[in-house]
Specification:
Rossmann fold; 7 strands; alpha/beta
Amino acid sequence: MQTEQELKNLVKEKYSEIALQDKETNASSCCGSGCCSSEVYNIMSDDYTNLEGYNANADLGLGCGLPTEFALIKTGDTVIDLGSGAGNDCFIARNITGASGKVIGIDFTPAMIDKARLNAEKLGLNNVEFRMGDIEKMPVTANIADVVVSNCVINLVPNKATVFSEIFRVLKKGGHFSISDVVLNGQLPDKIKHIAEMYAGCISGAIQKNDYINLLQQTGFTNISIQKEKVITIPQDILTNYLLPEDTNILKDSGTSIVSITVYAEKPTACCEPGCC
């Protein structure tokens, strides 16, 4: 069993590689894990190209939803993007907040931060900032954000409760988040769950959908709702990269479904600390 730090190191290593790959390579894999599929393109990610503010250089095809589309961002808002990658969601959020707002992207992969800063410089955006940091201990002060977004990142973090507590801390009272993430309905077979590469590819780090929602409630969030939900199918040619031929049907036979959800929740206006409500 790998420790939390070992899992984090794995994710950092894989996403450092991903930062140097093109979108086509990333999008045809399990969240960029490198398990390229000839059966399916964009196994998890949704199409960003119709959203205003979209920048192709910042789109690595790593997401599992469109959180900025559902995030109810307003002009002048301060927005934080967790696991900001090359900056795709940040630039779309900036298109909505305008010059009077502020967007902060947080990522713990140096190569991603470098790529995002270069993209921001090319776009001439001086109110989009990228900070190196762990989303379990965000490099921002409390009560600063109107909105938090994230796309297919929290499922990669071993200690999700800590991340939700941090989101609660950095949101203003009455602020909200919209997060796209991968969850499970049913138990993931051990042969898949214990494959480290699949962890970096967003699958093995997913938890039960009900447990995910319960963690949000325990943190103190209210008005929790699912804004979008879709079932994710892993093609057989991806599974054969990790499993023996006779084992490739174990996921299908298990009855477990892998689901992308976009979830919304609010920090109460009358709450002073996580759990007080």
